[in-house]
Amino acid sequence: MRHTSRLDLLLLLMVVIWGANFTVLKIALAAIPPLAFNGLRLLIASAVFMALVPFVASGFSRKIFRRASAQSTEFDGGRVERLKAEATTERSHRPARRDVVRLAALGFIGHFIYQLCFIEGVARTSVANSALIIGTGPVSVALLTAVAGHERVTARHWAGAALSVFGIYLLVGRDAELSRETLTGDLLILLANLCWAFYTVGARPLLKRLSALVVTGYSMMIGTVFYLLAAFPELARQDWSAVRLSTWLALFFSGLLALNVAYLIWYTAVQRLGNIRTSMYSNVVPIVAMLVALLWLGERIGAHKVLGAAAILSGLAITRAGRPVEQSTAPIEG
């Protein structure tokens, strides 16, 4: 039970990072075009992940060998050899051939297509529309989870998701509107939402035999390659010498925290808590974004927004109360 409580705290940290990232993005995108900004932060995050994989793997192996040495006094030669074999396997931290196709699909859909649709969608629709559509994410995850058969979606899950979506509506949906001007952006955000759901549910089988660090790092690296090909013209045109220090800091915050730290927490939670309970935390992000806007921009918070925040948290609590039907026993890294 202890690891679950610790993981819940990490998920709240993830929520804080993603909520604050909206304000950070406003700072960075004022100086760097969206494609160039996203391409650079994906490149930074991918490089960090791939540098961490062998480092964490070697640390994990040393831990296994210490366990083997400690048990060597028990004259259990078979046990020691099994532990050493486990360490040797974990040290490589390389996915098997059977995993490459799934990792490539996750990278292409969950990083390349998702990032393109999200950035271009936000540029073509309102913030309210974006937040409202993204707020349906847990419902998409629940549907895909049920189809994939990873978890049994209970009435508690559906009730929690519905209450959370209602809270999103109270928080931002009153300002949303459907029009021809926003239709393209709305559809792009909806597609991004579906890509994220596929990304979350599609990784579950991999997380049974690979660490969250490996799945996130390799899939992001693959998606980054595709993204850089699309972003290259903007990256080449950008005058990087004119970029101010505050923009660079915003870029590294959005890369290292919003991608490296937050994504690793997300996949670790999917591995341990399941798709549905993890996805519900994403609906807390608008609450943090609202509070950051209050502190940073001085925006007012009305009674309906307070009620919306309460509904979102209540929906999370309802879903959190249910025990996950299936939990992976794969190791957690980081």
Strand content: under 5%
Largest sheet: none
Mass-distribution shape: globular
- Percent helix among the residues? over 70%
Helical/strand content category: mainly alpha
User: What is the distance, rounded to the nearest whole angstrom, between the alpha carbons of the first and last residues?
Assistant: 19 Å
Describe the structure.
This protein is an all-alpha fold. It has one domain (2-50, 94-321). Helix content is 79%, strand content 0%. The chain has 13 helices and no strands. α5 (127-134) packs antiparallel against α7 (155-172). It is globular.
Descriptive terms for the model:
single chain, 334 residues, mainly alpha
Walk me through the topology.
Elements lengths: L1 H28 L4 H38 L5 H16 L4 H28 L2 H8 L2 H12 L6 H18 L7 H23 L9 H26 L7 H29 L1 H6 L4 H13 L5 H19 L13
